[in-house]
Amino acid sequence: MSNLPSLPSPDTALIAGLIPLAERAVAMADAAQAPSTRRAYDRAWSGFERWTAARGLASLPAMPETLAMYLTDRAEAVKVSTLEQELAAIVEAHRKADVPSPTDNRDLQLVWKGIRRTYGKPKVGKSPVGVLDLARMVAELGDTPSGIRDRALLLLGFAGALRRSELVAVDVEDLAPNPDGFALIIKRSKSDGEGEGQRIGIPNGRRPETCPVLAIRAWLQLANIKAGPVFRSVDRHGNIGPERLGDRAVAEVVKRAAHAVGLDEKALGGHSLRSGLVTEAVRAGVSERAIMAQTRHKSLITLRGYIRLGSLFLDNPAAALL
Predict the structure, then answer these.
(1) Is the pTM of this model over 0.85?
(2) CATH T-level topology, domain 15-119
């Protein structure tokens, strides 16, 4: 032991210099979750804290009985899907505090199973937008700045099977011109949690009126957009702003265009473009492999949920008998 060198005393300046690095490490840990997920978890946890405080109960750590009563109370007011998110937020708060989660309790698990059986309802997603309806929608948009922008947004969202957040995140720099269309780089998406980036093709359309490439070029030329966000705000006077559209604007554009041609706007939303591409591809006989390459689904099970919807009337035995 006497031959070992003595350890130097802690250097206060060195420790102080590590503080910014530690803070960056905390920021990296926060970046493991999408900002929208963090916001949702924060809201859910704040609601749970208010509920427990009003009843004189501890929120952290929470007793299984406390959580059982909370879930039972909330089940009368919100959807089971909302409760699932709130439950995830409570589990996350306990994990961060390094305390046991009350969800490990068997009795609580039985309560949760009972709530799901009692209050659970089949998930009803937004209806897909078919090719013919999409063509009608874009034909009615007109040649105003907002109409030209919305046409590009709808056609790119459909052709790329893009999620709302992916669609509004597209920058000019993400669109690489190609004789066959555009190579689109999706910098970040739900199926790319590590942020490695994904690339898909946006092909030239067979018809000018529904060609996503022509629509994008027309919008960029009109708006004189050379770099940065592709989809930007347009006010009622036709003035184009510099700011990027929010993802909720995608649903608004879809609903507005659907209403203009007499479609049920309540049944449609931003996801209708993505599900529409899958549904129409199935009907056209496109392979699962090719569809997954465009949608970037990692799970074939998830993709087949779309495929079942699109093939309800293909090779239907009742159609051959009645």
Answers:
(1) no
(2) DNA polymerase; domain 1 (1.10.150)
